[in-house]
Amino acid sequence: MCGIVGYVGGQQAAPLLLEGLARLEHRGYDSAGVAVLGGSGQRLAKRAGRVRDLSEALPKRFAGKVGIGHTRWATHGPATDANAHPHLDEASAVAVVHNGIIDNASTLRRQLTDAGVELASDTDTEVLAHLVARSDADTLEGKVRETLSYVEGTYGIAVTHADFPDRIVVARNGSPLLVGVGEKEMFVASDLAAIIRHTTAVAHLDDGEMATVTATGFTTVRHTDGAATAREAVAIDVDADQYEAGEHESYMHKEIHEQPASAARVLRGRLDERFGTAHLGGLGLDNRELRAIRRVKILGCGSAFYVGQMGAGLIEELARIPADAEAASEFRYRNPIVEPDTLYVVVSQSGETIDTLLAVEEVRRKGGRCVGLVNVVGSAIARACDGGIYLHAGPEVAVASTKALTNMFLGFALLALQLGRVRDLSIADGKRLIAGLERLPDQIAEILEGEADLAEAAKELAAAESLFFVGRVRGFPVAREGAQKFKEISYRHAEAYQTSELKHGPLALISPQVPTVAVVPDDELTERNVAALHEIAARGGPLWVVTHPGVDLGDVPARRIEVPRNEVELDPILLTVPLQVLAYHAAASLGLDVDKPRNLAKSVTVE
Ligand code: F6R
Questions:
Q1: pLDDT (tens digit, 9 = 90+) per residue, 189-212?
Q2: For residue 335, with 0-12 CB atoms within 10 Å meaning exposed, 13-18 middle and 19 or more buried, which class applies?
Q3: Which residues are catalytic?
Q4: Number of H helices, E strands in the chain
Q5: Is 356 in the pocket of ligand 1 (CB under 6 A)?
Q6: The model's pTM
């Protein structure tokens, strides 16, 4: 949420900053800005709107070889030119960009106004620029350290100062920051994506750490006491092309189509065909400890929560351990009972979602054991957990999550298999599921081959202002995820319901103007599902049914969307994939920016 990039070296900073911002734009896209240090001090350009608006508006003469830039997702104050980052002090000596939230910003703003400072924005960030400018410390590092001693909250910040024109000081507390090492040039960024074309030698800062970065190197200290931390850059093994949309019209389209390959990656090396089980060494739990687990609680936010519900179903079915999923954003506020024989599983693509991270901290504070299913290696959530498995989906740029969610499901399938096989699950069932998992990547590819038909259906669905997505038991989280994907990128009102609950209220809303997408797999509930379809059809509700070949829908007037058969336990993920494609094409047919839906941002690092 929000993106930071900075440069210090021999090249002009502005073009590099703008390029970095364009690569970070998925993290916040309501405003953007850059500040560079040239011969005559700070030069600032910032405005509400997209990075391309900023590029077009940039003054011709914008020279300077040190600079910082920011893409914003508004928290304090609306998306206006004045609220865009960077923020300067009154004398325009200090420039600051900031991700996160300063909790005591209103107190600090009041203290500054009482002292005669005229604040130019509504933001929490601006106070940082004034505090740095007013510090008596004689180094920039000292000024920033003093400033941070007054600040409560979360931040990743980058600071430049006209009196110290050879450096950028960055600091981290709860919001990621890294330093990238180039040839006589250095970068700072909140995300590797911003600088990947220039360097893959990076040092990730820890919370409580700050770095002073010049063209020739960097030093790190703890900002609490100034003690050196001697952090070194390490080479990251990553292909820069993974961060490009390439031949695809959008990142979301690319990421949907990457799923056969990324799904195969999360399974690789983790399946034990001989014993019909999975091996997840990263959990750090031996068989005795796995057997001692009496309950599983899954925590995640948004779509990760819905996949968590699919995961809970898998664990209950395969391991027969009571399991449920809960929105991580709610968990810590109800003073949860944390039990020592419960396994807490947190699930997150970014590994940065603050609500999920705080849920981990709540569990651990109360003595619980947390394992993570996380995509981003080395992320805050991955580090906060006792163990876990990486999802290997590769970088996900589109705001709406697709390939990472598929791998979350597969991560849960592996976990359920391992938990099941140290309990009652038979070797035959274990082998059956392994064979099913191995078929999945090709089956996902098969679904994606039907994209043209799904695009046609999507166009019709996009014409409705309001839709239902319904499913039962295994199909209900599928419906929830389908509705979520549809609403977040097409801005249509899409509501998910248990099919069985329709008649207890929402059936009143069914009409020829309100289509329903019903998830009806071939399972023990098919007949009941079909009965509900009749009830919808009888009220004139148009129906699209996501189902398996051969399922008899009787004489219900429904359009079919078919997915290949696999083992019933694994159905949810195959039923989900066409819903991603529907959402994508609905939004595309409406001419919307599918990768950057309004009001949202990738990685929600604010509460
Ligand atoms: C929806 C979506 C969000 C995320 C949620 C959690 O498409 O992407 O609902 O799933 O914000 O994010 P992570 O997985 O990064 O913790």
A1: 999 999 999 998 999 999 999 999
A2: exposed
A3: 2, 602
A4: 18, 26
A5: yes
A6: 0.91
